[in-house]
Amino acid sequence: MSILLRSKLNRRTKEDVVFDLVNVFILTGALLLVLYPLYFILIASVSNPDRIFAGDVLFFPRELTFDGYKRIFSDSYLWMGYRNSMMYAVLGTVISLSMILPAAYALSRKDLIGRKFIILLLILTMFFEGGLVPTYLLVKNLNMIDTIWAMVLPSAIGVWNVIVSRIFFESNIPDEMREAAFIDGCSNTKFFLRIVLPLSKPIIAVMVLIHVIGNWNMFFNAMIYLNHDALYPLQIILRNILIQNEFSAQSSLLSDLESYAAQQKVSELIKYGVIFVASFPLLVIYPFVQKYFVKGMMIGAVKG
Amino acid sequence: MNVIRENALIKPIHKSGRKFSHIKKNWELYLFVLPCVLWFLVFKYVPMYGVQIAFKDFIATRGIWDSPWVGFKHFERFFNSYNFQLLLKNTLGLSLMQLVIGFPLPIVIALMLNQLTSERFKRIVQTVIYAPNFISVVVLVGMIYVFLSPSSGMVNHVIKLFGGEPIFFMGSAAWFKPLYVLSGVWQETGFATIIYLAALAGINPDLHEAAVVDGATKFKRILYIDIPGILPISIILLILAVGNMMNLGFEKALLMQTDLNKSSSSIIQTYVYEVGLVKAQYSFSAAVGLFNSIINLVLLLSVNRLARKVSETSLW
What we know:
The structure holds 2 protein chains of 2 kinds.
Chain A: H1 3-9, H2 14-44, H3 49-54, H4 67-73, H5 76-108, H6 115-127, H7 132-141, H8 149-152, H9 159-172, H10 175-183, H11 188-199, H12 201-217, H13 220-225, H14 234-242, H15 260-303
Chain B: H1 3-10, H2 15-25, H3 27-50, H4 63-66, H5 73-80, H6 84-102, H7 104-114, H8 119-130, H9 137-147, H10 154-161, H11 173-201, H12 205-213, H13 218-243, H14 250-256, H15 262-265, H16 268-278, H17 282-310
């Protein structure tokens, strides 16, 4: 915007000044409302549980203790969950993207015969689905229960992601480019791999993020399809600790504590620490990748 | 220099021949699309076929084909069951509350953010309110449990500070709905806010300039320029939200469900899970799930038609 335009827009009436003050006030309030729970988790995870129980912990940690984190980091059961989640995140993302991106590119080609039919096929699934039990029975019949595949296949593709990717390809790969490449004897595959993909870094970034985060946070699939500890993702272990108050016998988190009271105390400390440790990776990359995410959603929102 | 047009000049008669050669030439594209289409056929369409067990007495050893047909028996059982009305009431009540509170809020916040003069503050707020979206549902509910714990939870400490009695939130049926909705708002507002902000950024600045020249206050500009500007996208998002009403995040409800708050935390989808996967009554559960899906579809179609009649925007 030109300087003249900006200064015109910034000319404020008396009511505007009041409006701006109220605006900033309310938005700052909203900011704090969102930040405080996250901040509290951080300080509580390093505070003495007695002080947490007593309610002394409000803005600063009290009686710093790293016992919670020590236990968390030395618990191999928890680390197994972490490892599994990472595996699902990577494998799941690779599988999803290798199906979504080529398909989205093919569907972005207006000269693809049968394009409308395929798109219809995909969109119909947004309106109606078979439901939990038929899907479960399918996974069972495919012998995927209690395997990695149950974690990475049933939720691999979201129609919305295909649509957004397709829109990106449609608007960013001009027909002229393709025609020129074809005249030079370039095949479809080569064109896609050597030209389209390198030009599509933004959408690839967005899709990678969406899928890594989605797979990392996935919990219900694990709950219904997995029976073995060894395959549990972090989210299931978290659920056991945070919601069912169950600490697995295989976990070393509380094993050295004799009294029930001592276990209760430490379990509180561990809960805060574990919440932090589980969300930490995502919340840390988040500010850096937010730019891509917002762009991805804007493509979807404005053009979809 | 379109290759197809060239071919057309040479062979104008054989239209199907032209199509076929085009398909052959672009065979790789069909390869690209194949895994995706296969996935949809297997993981989306096969279950749609499998939903017919809702009309049968499914016996696993016999398979879908050989299981006996029972028509609407399971549906009747569901409609006549003692908790049908409760489930319906809970599901609709929860969805409605979520819609009424959770839908306008991002609009309001986006409108406010859009008026900020400091770009940096705006970006900070935007980044921060979107952050909770990345927390998993397990962590979110875990946080709820931990904050609301009757003995050690932070919220009860504040209540005690003001002289009140600690409340056992997670054990109270009355608290389930507000907690569910408010935690949803905390987590999801950021997402929609960004979409609205994008729409607001697309509004022609000339409109605002003209308004300022005419002496309009910021508030008036919001009412007469911003709101009409984002009306189309809000309608679309509203349609999508209503269409999702019966499918609302039941993972969260499942995790927040305790024995004590079941009377308000039992929604149709948790019932489908409980009856289908825990009690293994596959046919009955499939029937309940089908009922849910159909209501969903009807809602979606109705709201879309309504939107088309009332405004010019609709999903299709």
